[in-house]
Amino acid sequence: MKITFLIHNVYGIGGTIRTTLNLAGALAGRHEVTIVSLLRDRDRPRFAIDPRVTVTPLVDLREDAPDAANPLLRRPAEVFPAAEKRYGQYSRLTDQRAEEYLRACDADVIIGTRPGINVYLARFAPPHALRIAQEHLTHDSHSKGLRAGLARAYRILDAVVTTTEADAGVYRARMRLPGVRILAMPNSVPDPGLPSADGTAKVVAAAGRLVRAKRFDLLIEAFAEVAGAHPDWSLRIYGVGTDKQRLQQLIDSHGLRGHASLMGAVSPIEAAFAQASIVVSASDAESFGMTLVEAMRCGVPVVSTDCPLGPAEIIDDGADGRLVPVGDRQALAGALLDLIADEPARRRMGEAARIAARRFDPAPIARAYEDLFTELAATRRSRDRLRHQPRWHSRVRRALGSLRRNLSAPLVRHPGTAHAVRPPDHPPQRWIP
Question: What is the pTM assigned to this prediction?
Answer without folding.
Answer: 0.83
